């Protein structure tokens, strides 16, 4: 069965850091094992802030930073394992294969990837693509569903945006 046509939720403006954290918290309520979220945007666009909002809502209290050097951070949560990836340092998509990360993309874990374009063409299909871009004093968030589950998540998120 082929994935549904991409659907986009436009006009998700996040006015500041608290709004970005709150959106992450809303997103966290929809996570379940197997969900893959890919977060794109330039340096400083708010990718890690969004992920921090997700993790805080899931009960993570330790410092949340982008795993730029480690490539991945595992958060073992009561209901699920969440892998937070950052591929910023990849110079070639093949580095994703060489790093042996494919095995972490399972139906039992939630995967959030910052800089997914750095592993272009090799990653499994995302359920939801999120793209952040500075806009005035805040940021614009674009969302694209890439699976049926992503479409369901998008409907809930956009209905409350």
Q: What is the CA–CA distance across the termini?
A: 30 Å
Catalogue the unreliable spans.
none
With strands numbered from the N-terminus, the spatial order across the biggest sheet is 1-7-6-2-5-4-3
Spell out the helices and strands N to C. Answer: EHEHEEHEEEH
Proportion of residues in helical segments: 10-25%
Shape: globular
SS field, number of helical segments = 4
How many runs of DSSP E, i.e. beta strands? 7
Mean pLDDT: 90
Give the amount of beta strand, in percent.
Answer: 25-35%
By secondary-structure content and strand pairing, the structural class works out as: alpha/beta
What about the largest sheet?
A: 7 strands, mixed
Radius of gyration based on Cα positions:
15 Å
TL;DR?
This protein has 161 residues and is α/β, with parallel strands linked by helices. The protein is built from four helices and seven strands, in the order βαβαββαβββα.
Layout: helices, strands, pairs:
Elements: E1 7-14, H1 17-28, E2 36-40, H2 47-57, E3 72-76, E4 81-86, H3 94-98, E5 109-114, E6 128-135, E7 138-145, H4 148-159
Parallel strand pairs: 2-5, 2-6, 4-5
Antiparallel strand pairs: 1-7, 3-4, 6-7
């Amino acid at each position: 069965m082929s994935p549904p046509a991409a659907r986009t939720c436009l006009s998700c403006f996040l006015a500041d850091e608290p709004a970005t954290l709150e959106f992450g918290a809303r997103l966290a309520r929809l996570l379940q094992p197997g969900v893959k979220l890919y977060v794109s945007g330039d340096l400083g666009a708010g990718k890690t802030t969004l992920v921090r909002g997700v993790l805080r809502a899931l009960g993570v209290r330790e410092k949340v930073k982008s795993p730029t050097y480690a490539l991945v951070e595992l958060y073992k949560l009561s209901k699920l394992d969440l892998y937070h990836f950052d591929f910023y340092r990849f110079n070639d998509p093949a580095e994703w294969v060489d790093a042996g990360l494919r095995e972490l993309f399972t139906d039992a874990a939630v995967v959030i990837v910052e800089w997914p374009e750095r592993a272009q063409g090799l990653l499994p299909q995302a359920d939801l693509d999120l793209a952040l871009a500075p806009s005035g004093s805040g940021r614009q968030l674009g969302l694209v569903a890439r699976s049926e589950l992503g479409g369901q998540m998008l409907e809930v998120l956009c209905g409350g945006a």
